[in-house]
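Hi R.,

Here's the chain you asked about this morning:
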Amino acid sequence: MSEGSTLPLRTAIEGALPDRPFTLEFWDGGRVEATRDGGPVVSFRSPAAISHVLRAPGELGLGRAYVTGEIEIDDIDKVMDLLGRFQAPPMGPIQKARFGLAAARAAGFKRPPPPPAAELQPPGKRHTKRFDSETVRHHYDVSNEFFALFLDESMTYSCALFADGAQTLEEAQFAKLDLVCRKVGLEPGTRLLDIGSGWGSMGIHAAREFGAKVTGITLSPPQAELANQRAREAGVGELCEFRVQDYRDLGNERFDSISSIGMIEHVGGDNIDEYAACIEKALDEDGRVLNHGITWTEPEVHLGADFSERYVFPGGEIPPLSRVLLAFERAGLEPLHVENIHRDYIETLRHWAERLDQNLAEAERLAGAERLRVWRLYLRAARNGFEVGLTSCFQTMLSRPIVERAGATQQRSEAEARRPVAG
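And here is the predicted structure, written out as tokens:
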């Protein structure tokens, strides 16, 4: 048998996976047939595909091979449907060793190829200001034009709200933004801080529809630049300011209302308490906060999976709802209303994936073949997380406790009464 033959590997796969809801094809013409009808076909196009998997067994190696084009999939959605639903039987040490040897023979016993250019090794200690700045830019600075290919016209990059009868993505995002504005009690002249303001959709909506005076902060310069431009084009430039700023650098600025949409996932488990404290410090005494974010359904903070950590959200950490609530309670804020909208996120991600697929040629021109593959995979994997119950999405409305606010009002009244009367 010649070096590089896939026969031993195919034999090992068939022995390890007697139930196979997929077909595997190899560069030498060999196949491992599915044992069920209608499954996806995964094609290993060269020995380099196996080398990637040997270098980083699991999702990272498979992801690298897919990103570089060494693995092709005839139907990504069918592969995603298997995640969390198909479980391979466990292998003992001897079976693992035989499997590894067969894979190495198929790969040709060659040095593994380098990781794809689209992969990022996050710099230094997690969630320092430098770390967060570099990782956020890795995610968002693909180009504004790339995101415009699959987001709605408002460029809202968070869960839309389909539950109230919205038919289009645009209608559903308008409904979500409107809901947030109502939850934080916006009215003409309200000073709103929008943390993680993105391309300005929340701030522009708040200014245009409610007359709020908006300050938005993001770590991405292209986002801030486009947000300010879009605010001017919408006729609310005088009400909106979008700037590049870390939430830890807000200083002593105070706001009547605060929205934080899709930010808590970037903060990090060790920083959630500081994040909540910064929000509490920036909130005026009678103000409201709306925190909207993805949460993990298990009770521990979930670090980003290997593929997501390198290609999509470096430094991403998804906390459980209980940890988010604890952080805000420690900061002195009281939850007033908690709403689960994860079913809406499933529908949102379906729309995004379909829109991206309708613009593949332009997306590849803007982002390159590797980054496009990352995003096609990521949007579906994220949707699968909500479908199988690994992740959820909550909107939490908070304020200071009523007793505390009453005390602060009384103290202010007493202080004003002690002021000398001019005359």
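One quick note: The CA atoms of residues 24 and 131 lie 39 Å apart.

Cheers,
M.
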